[in-house]
Amino acid sequence: MRILVVDDESEIRNYLAEMPQWADARCTVVGKAANGEEALALIEVVKPDVLLTDIRMPVLDGIELAEAVRKTYADMPIIFLTAHHEFEYARQAVRLGAADFITKPFKPEDIVRVVEHLRSKERSGWKEQESFFAALGGSSLSREQKRQWLLEQELEDRSFLLLYAELDHVHGSQSGRNPFELKKIRTTLESVPKGAGLTAWISETSSGVYLLLPFESGGEAGTRENGIELAKRMIKSCETENGQSVSVGISRMFDSYLELAEAIGQIGVCMDYRMLLGKNSVLAFDAIETIVGEKEKESLESVKRIADLLRTGNADGIRESLSSAYRRMLSAGASRKDIQHFCIGMIERSEDVLLEFGIEPTPGTAVGIRETMLASLILTDMMKALERYMLDNADAIRRLLEHSPKRLVAETKGIIDMEYRTDLTLQTVAKRLNVNYSYLSRLIKKETGKNFTDMLWEYRIEAAKIKLLNEDLKSYEVAYAVGFKDAGHFSMLFKKMTGLTPSNYKQQTGGKTQ
């Protein structure tokens, strides 16, 4: 194979170009470039079979180079050199059809392994396999058009079993949907059917790998039991030291490649139910189908019971009720969508309860918990997140209940007394007391017959009286000293509350003359 090496570091570029291991791999380096711009010019001259390029480079980086190459050489394999932490670059590389990644620091053996793997993929017709899944697994072609496609490709229609290995991950974790791990897993999975004496057609998604096993029609090899045994081997082969794992879904046995889209749909159902079993799970569609009809959706009474416990801030009761709901969902075989529906419903009900107490969830919290519910793949992860959210809400309500209305008003007055000179608002006080400002406003009005602003002005006017009596300040200086921004507004309020202007008040009460 003819290799073009692209790297902005001359030491690495020369090292790659002069590796003696290229001869062992029956490869020749036909050119080297310091950036993407130089590489584009060389491609037209040296006509490489494979592009080996760094991702981060000046002038034109590896991603931009790949985008340009794909316009003219759509099928050219591109191997990217990158660092482990460059996930975002790697994800863009996946989008551009990266053949593989080599992470720095690398060994010559890494390069040879990747190139030899590319050669074996070419021999096995990997491009045709991707085209197979694209044509028959989608909905853009009619059944007759799919039949015609098979004829044009000279492919004999056969029975098949479809398996899908998907990365297990926790939402938000760095290992979730790691493109480096996915490439390794695909390479690993390609060897599993061979070890079992089977042929497999393979296609990669953004988070997993499909394996289609063709069988002779009417043969006994394509049974669910054989699929389950192969799935277990797949899971075992993908175990890594860092805890990365896969779960495997298995479709029914189909009589024709024309049913591939339906098989993919069955795999989707399998992966929805993965959360019930956890990581390293084997999920066969026909087994799942037998429990779907027996599932028991979480009742409205359960949601109501938890909401009532939330109103009292009963953390232990909430834990027990959620645990009970968890057990019922497990025994009923609820689907991922059923469980998500219950969790989202519980979140919405809890928000209604919080508003009853004048506690308004922040937009970030409201969006974040919903994203977690929708993204979680494992039931235990979802229920733990819901429990943390509910207990946090219960704690907020419990702390609010510990403060009687009179105590909250007293604490508000205490804050005003200490900070009336500042730009104090009801919102800042409510935040300090960890209550909703509209709830605090209603409470103040109910307990004192005044609103917050009236209380604040009264404090400022009383402070102004003391200053007028004891300090040699002009009226406008007093106004600013007690927190008013407008001296005219101060004078108007002062007269309204005392019946005198600030100057008259000072004269009549014997304060220091201005």
Could you walk me through the main structural features you see in this protein, from its secondary elements to its overall organization?
The N and C termini lie far apart (97 Å). This protein has a five-stranded parallel sheet with strand order 2-1-3-4-5, sandwiched between helices. It has a five-stranded mixed sheet with strand order 7-8-6-9-10, sandwiched between helices. It has helices at 10-17, 21-24, 36-46, 62-72, 87-95, 108-123, 126-136, 143-152, 179-195, 224-238, 260-272, 274-277, 285-292, 300-311, 315-332, 336-356, 363-375, 379-401, 405-419, 426-433, 437-448, 452-470, 475-481, 487-498, 502-508, and strands spanning 2-6, 28-33, 50-54, 78-82, 100-103, 159-167, 201-204, 208-215, 246-250, 282-284. The protein is α/β, with parallel strands linked by helices. Residues 170-177 and 293-299 have low confidence and may be disordered. Helix 5 (87-95) links the parallel strand 4 and strand 5 (100-103). 59% of the residues lie in helices and 11% in strands.
Number of strands: 10
Number of helices: 25
Would you tell me the overall average pLDDT?
79
Strand percentage lies at 5-15%
Helix-residue proportion: 55-70%
Distance between the termini: 97 Å
Q: Classify the secondary structure makeup into a structural class.
A: alpha/beta
pLDDT under 50 segments (min length 5)?
170-177, 293-299
Question: What is the alpha-carbon Rg in Å?
Answer: 35 Å
Shape: elongated
Key terms for this structure?
514 residues; alpha/beta; 25 helices; elongated
